[in-house]
Design brief:
This protein is of the alpha/beta class and 354 residues long. Helix content is 33%, strand content 18%. It has two domains: 206 residues, Rossmann fold; 134 residues, no CATH class. It is built from 13 helices and 13 strands. Strand 1, helix 1 and strand 2 form a beta-alpha-beta unit. The longest helix has 18 residues. The chain is elongated, with a radius of gyration of 21 Å.
């Protein structure tokens, strides 16, 4: 099969690109607004591909890539996210249509647009989904949103995302079930957090520098949930991580007290149980808090651990301040999840030629 080419938009640090390049797509052009993320991309990908700046300032350049195989990207999702203001007038919410403007210029064989689960399923955004799908159809694309759970594709993180996959001039009446079948065939169970992070070594070592020292304290007004890892009984929005399970979605706001944390002694087998789980049980049993603050064995995850949870390669170079690096990692599409989608699209495009 000939080499497949692609255009990457809203590229960020390049998480989707790692996945798409991993299955054989060659990215010819990439665009990212955040300077530090663009620098990260340049440090890990082919030179001359990244066009840093506002997409509206570079979109005319896309005419030079007309007819490539794929356009992919993840426009900013804050306007649609349940964690945000869910504002349809947020200028970032309009960028999903700017993505289609790019598709109209390039006219690729296929496109893949990633976004938050809410855009794919919430009734609040039904009119936006309908308008998006109608615009894609008007451009000649059969487009279907697929909701995917990252933990089913090798990612140790409870992260659900929607992928709008569009195929140009598609005559397949059963596109949705055919693509769904391909995607499901690529499922791979993720390792638990402990198995993923242990090879890095303890925080503060050469392979795993300690990059976030934001203090962990008790919440003034704790919010209980049935799971020790879902409530809010510590300061900030950084949730505890279950070493025996999967992390909650890593937020782009990491870097301070919104950075998730874990019990290092339990992670490395020095403690028989997770302090957070024990503490949660005491609260549920109505026992008073006797400690003035949580023990030092609880600590925030490092940049390298966050990168592993997003399935970036261990040798991936990140540029910028620690805070900006955490943001780049939190904003990224997990590489292995992107790789599964890329592989599914590649297989589908190959079957079209058979």
């Amino acid at each position: 099969m000939r080499e497949l080419t692609a255009v990457s938009l809203f590229t960020g640090a390049g998480g989707m690109d790692v996945g798409f390049e991993g299955v054989g797509f060659r990215v010819l052009f990439a665009n990212e607004l955040m300077a530090e993320a663009a620098a990260t991309y340049n440090a890990n990908h082919a030179a001359g591909v990244m066009a840093e700046g506002d997409i509206h300032d570079v979109i005319d350049r896309l005419d030079g890539y007309r007819g490539c195989d794929l356009v992919f990207g993840g426009p900013p999702c804050q306007g649609f996210s349940v964690a945000g203001k869910m504002d349809p007038d947020d200028t970032r919410s309009r960028l999903i249509f700017t993505f289609l403007d790019a598709v109209e210029i390039v006219r690729p064989r296929a496109f893949v647009m990633e976004n938050v689960k809410a855009l794919g399923v919430l009734a609040r955004w039904e009119s936006v989904r309908k308008r998006y799908l109608e615009r894609a159809k008007a451009l000649g694309y059969d487009c279907v949103p697929f909701l995917l759970d990252a933990t089913k594709f090798g990612v140790s993180q409870k992260r659900e995302r929607v992928f709008f996959i569009g195929i140009r001039e598609n005559k397949d009446k059963f596109f949705r079930p055919h693509m769904q079948k391909i995607i499901e065939s690529l499922q791979k169970k993720a390792p638990c957090v402990r198995d993923l992070l242990l090879p890095l070594g303890r925080a503060g070592t050469e392979k795993n520098p300690n990059t976030c020292t934001a203090k962990i304290t008790f919440a003034t007004r704790p919010v209980m949930r049935s799971s020790p890892y879902a409530g809010m009984y510590f300061n900030g929005q950084g949730r505890p991580i279950d070493a025996d399970g999967y992390a909650n979605t890593l937020p782009a706001s990491m870097g301070g007290n919104k950075t998730p944390f874990l019990d290092e002694e339990y992670l490395y087998g020095d403690a028989a149980s997770d302090w957070v789980a024990d503490f949660h049980k005491r609260l549920k049993d109505g026992q008073p808090i006797t400690e003035e603050e949580p023990p030092k064995r609880l600590r925030r995850i490092t940049i390298r651990e966050a990168a592993r949870l997003q399935t970036f390669p261990d040798d991936y170079v990140f540029c910028g301040t620690k805070s900006r690096i955490y943001t780049q990692i939190g904003n990224a599409v997990p590489c292995k999840l992107a790789e599964a989608v890329a592989s599914a699209v590649k297989q589908y495009l190959s079957s079209e030629n058979e």
